[in-house]
Design goal:
Radius of gyration of chain A: 21 Å
CATH superfamily of chain A: Chorismate synthase AroC
Distance between the termini of chain A: 34 Å
Enzyme class (chains A, B, C, D): lyase
InterPro entries (chains A, B, C, D): Chorismate_synth, Chorismate_synth_AroC_sf, Chorismate_synthase_CS
Keywords (chains A, B, C, D): Amino-acid biosynthesis, Aromatic amino acid biosynthesis, FAD, Flavoprotein, FMN, Lyase, NADP
Strand order of the largest sheet of chain A: 1-2-3-7-4
Order of helices and strands of chain A: EEEHEEEEEHHEEHHEHEHHEEEEEEEH
Protein name (chains A, B, C, D): Chorismate synthase
CATH topology of chain A: Chorismate synthase, AroC fold
Organism (chains A, B, C, D): Pedobacter frigiditerrae
Oligomer: homotetramer
Number of strands of chain A: 19
Helix content of chain A: 25-40%
Chain lengths: 361, 361, 361, 361
């Protein structure tokens, strides 16, 4: 049973390979009556697309999106929305030398072993190019969330060992503006500069580096999340872990919380109109259900596997081989991954918004 | 849409509340012909049950499991296997004082807000008692994995800030024996003693503490995991994050990997009969698919919310209230969580073993 | 991938074999706040249970239902509702002679061939006893529909070649009373008498006979049904075809409609407050979506395969064998099937009621 | 929850409206290594496309299919296969007069009522044009079945009251050749001529007529079908009932079987190498599982709702309105529906072939 769909009620299915004709996505379950702003979808794709700056891959793709179905006179009709992004920059020859060679820490070997056949051009289906389809679908989820007043904001909180200070703005629109002013997409300009310099030096070494993306969700209604397995943070975690290169996920107090005592970790409720808590170690989620506080989580990305160094490896016959570092490479994915994190978070929330509707008479 | 099922082909659905008649699980999709060893299922439940030692909750439940369907003459028949665990120790009166009061960092408020009605006795459905059903189902998954030679081993790697040394045994049977000799279930006896002393002191303070559980899977066949969303680590992550009190998940290099460079993080392939890698920062999974190396991951648990201190909180009317620390409490869940982690990992692998069967002609 | 679940949002999973410990069902997705009237559930089971009259099987089962989870103080809580019906009359010895012999037109051979193992006692999982679990779950679905004013009524419209006149009552409560006054459950008393006499004569011959059950649903809201695959009538059809012994399903004009011309078959809309149609060949469903008119369908049941005659057959080795007609048999299932048809229809409608909630912003 | 997907392991999701940019389908779960013969897919589409003969609609669509993903060097790779069919003949002006008027026995009213918005051009999503996507996906399912030796054959068995004699050929290739020699797609040439004349006369009346399509499946392996809900015939039934204009489904003895006695209806097993039955009233399926005999079923289609007569109806405001009979119409769908029936049957079988793989250790 294949795994190319995500979500239950707001459900997406992506398709497409790195160097095929096109990539795309079907969104099945978008409620009718939503204004589908194609310019917004495109602007989200533009934030993810390669070639944006000196610290991302130089591969050029304009990533222009088309709507094939599911809208009428600018609004969703309740039928499947199909979005298509044709592939343009199919420099397959760059990849010809990898036909039989397994690149270290890539998916070449496992795809071959699993399926017995593999589109070896640029990673095929395992390429992060597939995430463009997620970003397009996530943009529609964001439009739905916006109707409900829900805001999502992600930014780069770490590159290598350079960490941004804790994010504590209540004005996400402002934070977004700040974030978009620097090419690394960190909400703290001073840290951003350090990160950019570091990535640039790593790039010059022909090397890559990992990083972290933090995400905050404001104005999430109370009640989202479906125990006992589809807890809101469990679905967020799966969503993040499904993104290429992600190796870790934590929400609220996260790994640090495992070192704490209950007496310091408990979030005391405060009397008032609407239940709030004094602290938010719960990260806005209790028992797997949103409690109305800010939802916070962090996603950790490993360094990109494609480096410009020669590496020892094996070929499909199991024999020793060398892989040459040439072509183009992406020194650090987190600046672009910010948009993918937001998109996946939006998809999870849109799905749970709809799921929540069936819980009461 | 409710979330009480887990898995697609090896699928479980759990039911039951902490103080209801019984808890249980239906396993739909267990292949026919598997010998169902009820003694093994019971022995797994015995490792999870409360009241095992001075460092776990003193609640007494014998957790005796019954098989209601799906087996014939000791073997699975391919029809749904239903397992029932009657509840015994229903001291509901202990919980009478919490009818209208929201316990901090519990699910009382969110359940009320979500459903408009709540079984307030002992956490109801949100109680970790539900995980007994998972352990019972996981035991059957383990029996299936055993037929395929796959081994799963988890142990406590941290309690608060006390960390076990890296686990590096290749003999999981031996490690299991060592682990079961200490009540905290750490594979390193020296660290175990420190952890036990620490938990005991925390318990005497009426407080609780978090911790971490590490898991290793050996002899997993190459090819498990269904990109692009149901990557093996994404499903493992969701499984772990669905366990009560879990706040973080990482696999392979994890969060530390995000600080590394590609040139150090890449796992170089070694020539030989069967592809292996020199290092295993990938944690046995590449592109979301198992590569035959050991699968490794860590799950972080927050401290239990029930403490023996009085705490300020609110009631259902939003008014200030105080919650008294009385009754029984569990100072640290990780010694029992070890079994739950193994069970959920077994369920994920059993599911992916079956899913893998449809990928080739 | 097993097939023991039905429904997507109001989802049931049944378990249990004819001569096992118990049969039962989990309902996952029942909205919170519904009053769960266990007496009503039991009364529905009483209408399905064997041994009701001279024209049904004499097997005795009291079919007493227990609620194990999912309710609190008489109301659903939004968590899984588990219903258990212990088996009582396990006269397995009656079935001992069939261990290796394949009964004609039963599922003995196909279960053996599919799973390689079979609980041969009384049909095991393939026994119509499993439908008791459906009736119990369907009773809860009916309680939900009642809250929304939706009424479902089924009755026997044919036994062999004896057909009831067209049903044209608008008072379903009255029709139900009439139906329950005769043991064959036909809404027309005169036809009922003919049917009863006929079944009784068939029974005396040690034979069985098929029949038809008609169903009408009143006050169904406009808009239920999810094109293009989960059309309301497609889900009703699957629900009916999943009942033991069903060989045909038609809705609205049905098979007869295939002989008509469009000019006579089209249902002309009538001006008024609320769209209605002059005729109802559409059977209350257009484009797979309910249109507010009565939903009507007919389900055809083959004659029961167990007869009291000796029959030639084969054993598991493929050798000729004879099967003796002895024990108890059910000359005609339709009187009891009426309740199963209603239950499955209720489950489909409850599911689509919830599904409909996510179609608009 | 929307209903645009069909199948569980061999799963399709269709998209597109009658007068949108394109229609298409994603197939997720096609095993890797299958040769994808695009000429065969196109030839299947050519059999469904409009404008083939005088007895079908004159709408012109070339229905040229493109493969966007999921294949490499002519073979499936195990990743989602996306097929696109651009729309050409978008004479929307023909439909301008129906903006606010509900056509009798169409889905105009129900779509409006369900979604609150409707693409009124030519039926939008409710148009039978969507079935082209099914035929394309079904062609790939057929290629998979062919690898396993399974053959599917459908033909028109009735138009109005004209019935073809029982089909009794064992040579499906030959029957296919005969069927394709007449424009009504009946396997009996003499009956075909009568049907054609009748449809032509109906067409000249500006009217339409219903009909039936029979289907036979040969060489289906024993063991397909997943009790208790996903019985093979239940999934076939749902598949057929999801096709536009279908009002009835029966398999094996069908409705006629409900008039029979068990002693005549039972299929006696014959001794031999491989279990066979003397008769086949079971239609190749027992207990919901294929038994190796021919699978047979019949699907009943109502007459097309679009007729060339003026009809009384209502508009969106509920006021009386008249609908003019103009434009193009399709006097009888069954000649083209034959291909859709085969496609849906192929999809069901492909899905169950894969599902069957997880039933044994």
């Amino acid at each position: 049973m294949s795994g190319n769909s995500f979500g239950k009620l707001f459900k997406i299915t992506t398709f497409g390979e790195s160097h095929g004709v096109a990539i795309g996505v079907i969104i099945d379950g978008c409620p009718a009556g939503l204004t589908i702003d194609i310019d917004f979808i495109q602007s989200e794709l533009d934030k993810r697309k390669p070639g944006q700056s000196k610290i991302t891959t130089q591969r050029k793709e304009s990533d222009l999106v088309q709507i094939l179905s599911g809208t009428f006179e600018g609004k969703s009709t309740g039928t499947p929305i199909s979005l298509l992004i044709p592939n343009e920059d199919q420099r397959s020859k760059d990849y010809g030398h990898n036909v039989d060679v397994y690149r270290p820490s890539h998916a070449d070997y496992t795809y071959d072993a699993k399926y017995g056949i593999r589109d070896h051009r640029g990673g095929g289906r395992s390429s992060a190019r597939e995430t463009a389809a997620r970003v397009a679908a996530g943009a529609i989820a964001k439009l739905l969330l916006k109707e409900k007043g829900i805001e999502i904001f992600a930014h780069v909180t770490a590159v290598g060992q350079i960490n941004a200070p804790n994010f504590n703005s209540n004005n996400l629109a402002e934070a977004l503006a700040v974030r978009e002013e620097n090419i690394v997409r960190c909400a703290d300009p001073a840290t951003a500069n350090q990160m950019i310099d570091f990535i640039d030096s790593v790039r010059k070494d022909g090397d890559t580096v990992g990083g972290k993306v933090g995400c905050i969700i404001k104005n999430c209604p109370v009640g989202l999340g479906e125990p006992v397995f589809d807890k809101l943070h469990a679905d967020l975690g799966k969503a993040m872990l499904s993104i290429n290169a992600v190796h870790g996920f934590e929400y609220g107090s996260g790994f640090a919380g495992s070192e704490m005592r209950g007496s310091e970790h408990n979030d005391v409720f405060l009397a008032g109109d609407k239940p709030k808590t004094l602290t938010n170690y719960s990260g806005g989620i209790q028992g797997g259900i949103s409690n109305g506080m800010d939802i916070t989580f962090i996603t950790a990305f490993k360094p990109v596997a494609t480096i410009m160094h020669n590496q020892q490896t094996i070929n499909a016959a199991g024999e020793a081989a060398e892989i040459k570092g040439k072509g183009r490479h992406d020194p650090c994915v987190v600046p672009r991954a910010v948009i993918i994190v937001e998109a996946m978070a939006a998809l999870v929330l849109a799905d749970h918004l709809l799921r929540q509707r069936s819980n009461r008479l």
